[in-house]
């Protein structure tokens, strides 16, 4: 099970758009996926058309037992193969600026129970636990996508503690460039503190307009700072993204030229995520060890 976090320390750059686009690509290509909505705004939960549940990710962070996790997972309205660990405004109570180590590992502990099938880390059914999730048992997921809030508190650090890879999302503006630098530093810090498996997968640039001199300047600036970590493919600024989200549909089913252009970027991103899970995880530094090319 590969766990990837979509991350930005500046709001409004489209990290939820990237989480949803990646989830849609996984659904389209038959990759069983869990979308974890860790942002208290819960926009990913709404856009993925998840029904109401008796628990949310806030409850899982209170008590990461498997019985609570099962009640907080709902099937996405997008189709079979995508489930949502639903978000809620109450998740904000877990966003402490200086969390302790036990607080930071609760999400990772909960996700580990997707693999083991029990609360004590052993294989087996949990006794006397009714099923309220999408299936009678929590099916194993090939991919877990965590949509982080745009701040570096307990929630984002919990995601980085649980993740194998982080996609750093930005747009081509001055303030967003500084935000992605802080996000990269946060990934490196969390890797040294608690999660040696964590690596930045790359920097994905969103809302790019062609023939915009400011955007071209900022993209070149990002490539100078992060080198091969900047994805070759960028997400164009297309109204189809907002239209699909407003209709609670994956961009992959929105049949316009703009939607197809965006979907191709997410397909490439999915391929890169899945390849990263099947390869050794070298320690990456900016300017070293070019990541695999997007195909």
TrEMBL record:
Segments of this protein annotated with the region Disordered: 114-137
Top-level taxon: Bacteria
Start and end residues of each CobQ/CobB/MinD/ParA nucleotide binding domain: 5-246
InterPro entries per UniProt: CobQ/CobB/MinD/ParA_Nub-bd_dom, DNA_Partitioning_ATPase, P-loop_NTPase
Signal peptide (from-to): none
Gene3D superfamilies found in the cross-reference section: P-loop containing nucleotide triphosphate hydrolases
Cited Pfam families: CbiA
UniProt feature, compositional bias: Basic and acidic residues: 116-129
PANTHER family associated with the record: COBQ_COBB_MIND_PARA NUCLEOTIDE BINDING DOMAIN-CONTAINING PROTEIN (PTHR13696:SF96), P-LOOP CONTAINING NUCLEOSIDE TRIPHOSPHATE HYDROLASE (PTHR13696)
The protein's name: ParA family protein
Organism: Pseudonocardia hispaniensis
